[in-house]
Amino acid sequence: MNIKSICCLGAGYVGGPTMAMIAAKCPHIQVTVADFNVQRIAAWNSDSLPVYEPGLDEVVRSARGRNLHFSTDIKAAIASADLIFVSVGTPTKSYGIGAGRAADLRYIESAARLIAEVSQGHKIIVEKSTIPVKTATAIKSILAANSRADATFDVLSNPEFLAEGTAVEDLSAPDRILIGGETTPGGADAVEALVSVYANWVPRERIITTNLWSSELSKLVANAFLAQRISSINSISALCEATGADVDEVSRAIGTDSRIGPKFLKASVGFGGSCFQKDILNLVYLCESFGLPEVAAYWIKVIELNDWQKSRFVEKIVRTLYNTVTGKRIAILGFAFKKDTNDTRESASIAVCRDLLRERAQIAVYDPRVDADSIRQDLVEAGVDPELINTHLQICDSPYTACQGAHALAALTEWEEFRNLDLIRLYDGMLKPAFVFDGRAILPTAALKAHGFEVFVIGKGV
Ligand code: NAD
Ligand code: UDX
Fold this sequence. Notes:
Layout: E1 5-9, H1 15-25, E2 30-34, H2 38-44, H3 56-63, E3 68-71, H4 74-79, E4 83-86, H5 106-118, E5 121-127, H6 135-146, E6 151-157, H7 167-172, E7 177-181, H8 185-198, E8 207-211, H9 212-243, H10 247-255, H11 276-289, H12 293-320, E9 329-333, H13 348-358, E10 362-366, H14 372-381, H15 386-392, E11 393-395, H16 399-403, E12 408-411, H17 423-429, E13 435-438, H18 445-450, E14 454-457
Parallel strand pairs: 1-2, 1-4, 2-3, 4-5, 5-6, 7-8, 9-10, 9-12, 10-11, 12-13, 13-14
Helix pairs in contact: 1-3, 5-6, 9-11, 9-12, 11-12, 12-13
């Protein structure tokens, strides 16, 4: 099957950048990204994209209007496509059976029903969203029960491995593309059709094909393993602080073992992002559902350790500031869950700010990319009393404003600009002792100390 027209349902952090890359690399394929979120689509069609990613503007500009289109006309986009990516959200379910663990599959189901309603002829449906293993069966059953007589479908799994902040790099030179399909002749043809799309720029040896269930499960497992490494090194960061060891030195020492490798060993105030926690919870729920409580208990520890890491950071601040932060101004540098993104989902900053606000601290937040409304909304959603937000939260337009009159600063996102702050200006603006809590081990510790700051760095013993 020769793919000439692609549609993607969901214009979010995955759908937008992924389809922009396909369109840029495959000028012979028409690509339409469809979403019912009118504002989001308007932003994708404007000069101010809804997703901040280094290099993304250029990729979008190179193809938009030529073979890349963003539209709210979902039905028309489905009708004209040979291949449909489903890239809708799959958040953790917050109600009913499996609440707090299972993936909420309502958007997947609504996408499948819409595809069934509109489709004629043969179409390939591709799960791009991260979903529980066996979701393809549910999609196939919805399609079979609701489609027209002349409509036929193949369902593939093609999980996305991009990381935010490096999406363009990850998409243009991926470690691998994973495609799962049915082991029938029709399934094999569908897999080959999708392989041919990626083969326009990805070497064939990097395109892995598997059965459907291996592909669906591999996505959850990849994220669980990555998060597990962070929780492992974060657990050791606490031991380093207690013993006088230095977690960065330990990471370097173990990471040079080629069996361990150096990546994802940077201790932090805790991992965030829309994926790790959600996908581990999803894995845990699957294990529980399949009667494997020991496996579930093993993986849930990764999240528990991450929550503990965030709360022990807050406790460190409170204890150091003479056991009370009530009424004290604390500058928070960084609100995004990592550098080079405007995404704040599950950011460690949310938990730290929430807990400090509950201690009645005065919080002054600076982040170079996150807008004030998102910060306020995240804190409301985290359960902070809106009145407390009104009276105790200030959003600042520079790190110096945030630190003016502050008892302490806490660095929570590893933005490059935090590495080169004017320390004299910061110090002069702060109350003394001027405390620094570096939750990312990115600030120049020796220089800070030389300027008179009292410094605590995650994973560094005294
Ligand atoms: P997102 O919330 O940013 O975007 C999802 C979009 O889907 C929303 O704009 C929503 O309006 C739209 N949508 C919902 N139902 C729809 C429908 N029926 N038709 C059209 N649009 C519809 O989510 P995201 O971060 O892009 O994640 C999407 C999926 O990709 C999730 O399953 C996630 O786990 C997975 N994933 C995300 C990342 C990441 O870095 N964010 C990486 C890999 C995988
Ligand atoms: C992750 C996966 O990396 C990606 O493959 C998947 O498709 C989506 O989920 P993402 O969440 O965007 O990507 O970013 P990632 O770079 O994995 O960082 C996640 C969190 O872990 C961030 O808060 C980051 O700061 C933190 N982190 C990462 C650490 O604390 N230490 C590390 O060594 C690496």
